Amino acid sequence: HSVVRNALFCLETAANEKENHVYTKALMAYAFALAGKEEKRKALLDSLEKEAVKKDGSVHWQRPGREPEADLPYYRYRAPSAEVEMTAYVLLAHLTTQPAPSQQELSFASLIAKWISGQQNPNGGFSSTQVSCFPPG
Q1: CB 48 within 8 A of CB 26
Q2: How do residues 73-100 score in pLDDT, each as one tens digit?
Q3: Per UniProt, what is one Pfam family of this protein (predicted)?
Q4: HSE on the CB side for 129, CA within 13 Å?
Q5: Is the pTM for the entire model greater than 0.70?
């Protein structure tokens, strides 16, 4: 389909930009994974790994210039929803590859999944990026 081909060309052009935001890279890595563009997927994941926050046996990504998380006793920090979302896209990009992900990718993906699962609220959900137009109740 010409629309998909044109969209992929647009993404490939954007992926070559020097200053892509970490969120944009995460989305593009997943898009290229879905499109079967392995070389582009791998290049973006390599770039993203350099920007990863590796802490407490887990891996995640955060927006540049964000305030550092509070390290207080009895307080469990939960990342903003945009950071959970972009980290989830990186996880999907690692797992969406043909042939199946390598053992190294699966090991790295498990560190990402560990961080994501730690962001769940007490009800098992996550904070939302969606804004409700209706008041609760």
Answers
A1: yes
A2: 554 566 778 889 999 999 999 999 888 8
A3: TED_complement
A4: 8
A5: yes
